[in-house]
Write a structure and sequence with these properties.
This is Putative exosome complex component RRP41. Belongs to the RNase PH family. One of its GO terms (biological process) is U4 snRNA 3'-end processing. The protein contains 4 helices and 9 strands, in the order E-E-E-E-H-E-H-E-E-H-E-E-H. It is of the alpha+beta class. The chain has one domain: GHMP Kinase, N-terminal domain (Ribosomal Protein S5, domain 2), CATH 3.30.230. The strands form 2 sheets. A 5-stranded mixed sheet has the order 1-2-3-5-4.
């Protein structure tokens, strides 16, 4: 059971409550943009290089090519093992990241160019893809790459205790319970969905409820990310003013 008799989840959250989000932009100097994001106990680093000239095999005259690489640190889960970059899960996650970020980036501004996005999961505790999208969005903003809107991702599940209750921002224990998990990557300010993935079958009567909860989570995350960006920019202007004086 994912909900207690008091209506709380196993980690103490209410059904519609996000995990605590902490984030920071500009954590590295070598990349053009970087970010670190914690969502609960899931922790992700993201780095962006570019735009730079694309190789001939990838070059496109219509817009920039977005290259994404997803990886997990050896110590990211309780089971320590080597995770090669070319395994099936990493390849699938990389493609899903590319789909979400390409929808957000103004690709037409950089023809014949390429943007490289690298994300690494330092600690995995559920909804890893969602946290990677959110961290990569901050890294793109730190790199100064124009976006149509924030790309935000959130997951939602369903609890069947007494009555059907949608759960927001699924953690590892809730994922491991084997229930349905809906992952949504969207541009909340435009209402556009960039990616939609479901782990199991769900009756259509409940689909709209779970999707609505996930979309609300994306909008809530956008508010958090926007606040972090504004604070980062404010700190940058303050430092410049001090140097000028």
């Amino acid at each position: 059971e994912l909900l207690t008799s008091q209506g709380l989840r196993l980690d103490g959250r209410r059904p519609n409550e996000l995990r605590r989000i902490r984030c920071k932009l500009g954590v590295f100097k070598q990349p053009d943009g970087s970010a670190y994001l914690e969502q609960g106990n899931t922790k992700v680093l993201a780095a962006v290089y570019g735009p730079h000239q694309a190789s001939k095999s990838k070059m496109s005259n219509e817009g920039v090519v977005v290259n994404c690489q997803y990886s997990m640190a050896t110590f990211s889960t309780g089971e320590r093992k080597n995770r090669p970059h070319g395994d099936r899960k990493s390849t699938e996650m990389s493609l899903h990241l590319r789909q979400a970020l390409t929808a957000a980036i103004k690709t037409e501004l950089y023809p014949r160019s390429q943007i490289d996005v690298y994300v690494e999961v330092l600690q995995a505790d559920g909804s890893c893809y969602c946290v990677c999208v959110n961290a990569a969005t901050l890294a793109l903003i730190d790199a100064g790459i124009p976006l149509r809107a924030y790309a935000c991702a959130c997951s939602a599940s369903m609890s069947w205790r007494d009555d059907a209750e949608p759960l927001l921002d699924v953690g590892h224990v809730e994922e491991a319970a084997g229930g349905v998990c809906l992952t949504v990557a969207s541009l909340p300010s435009t209402g556009r969905i960039a990616l939609l993935e479901m782990s199991h079958r769900l009756h259509m009567d409940y689909f709209d409820i779970v999707l609505s909860r996930a979309m609300q989570g994306c909008r809530d995350i956008e508010v958090v990310l926007d606040k972090a960006v504004r604070e980062h920019l404010a700190q940058g202007w303050t430092k410049q003013d001090v140097v000028t004086v």
